[in-house]
Amino acid sequence: MTFKIAFIQLLPGKDLYENLDKGLEALEEAAEKGADIALFPEMWSDGYSLPQDENALNKLAIPGDSEFIEEFRKTSAKLGIAVGITFLESSGSSKPLNSVIFFDRTGKKILHYSKLHTCAFDAEAVLAEGDDFYVADLDFERGSVRIGSMICFDREFPESARILMLKGAELILAPNACPMEINRLAALRTRAYENMVAVATCNYPEGHPDCNGHSTLFDGVPWSQDEGSVDMCVFEAPAEPGVYVAELDLDRLRKHRSEDIMGDKYRHPEKYGILADESVRGVIKGEFVHW
User: Is residue 283 part of a domain?
Assistant: First the structure.
């Protein structure tokens, strides 16, 4: 059984309304290409624009039940395709959130996640943090897959994917907005390998500030009985804009998960107490330097 993921690797428009039109058009293209789900890059609603002025920022933020989100929900149901739509979310706190909402092919909201590891050392200091990682079962007619999400900088923390794996995620869908170079790609590969999960990342294309395309799908299967070690990167987009569709072999992933030794099979959580010890901070000294 396979599951098809569309990466909406497009340049955003100049405002919310243009992003709505471009996004809905891309969703139609994804459905025409046979995708089961379409994933947008990080904060599609405003093209990852983060004004540092509070008033300007709040003007860009929208609620999770806004007309923008509702149009994606309705179009998702009309086309029979799931969607992960990303946005700058207004919240009850003084700071907005960096969020994604997933609707299934019937338009039912199944998951709402806000970025937990914000880039608080940089422009995202103006944002609030999410509170937890969540999973949900996504029905795609031929079957179902348990999904979770992490957003951009979340991937740099092994705990993000680990928690999602422990909650049952088979596929992690990751909106992104940064240069996908060898080290970040290596982090995604590692998250897939150590947790036996597939990781799909959608980035903005070249031409968007500080982005370069290269959306990827790592299928989480590093071994083949016939070939030995294999490349888990089963899809990598070019730098150019496009709606790219990649296929995940769920049967192959599930067979690997049932037979291999990674994931949670040989963990020793009773020995990991230091990981949750709030007093252990500042081990690595120094200040952040923005390259």
Answer: no
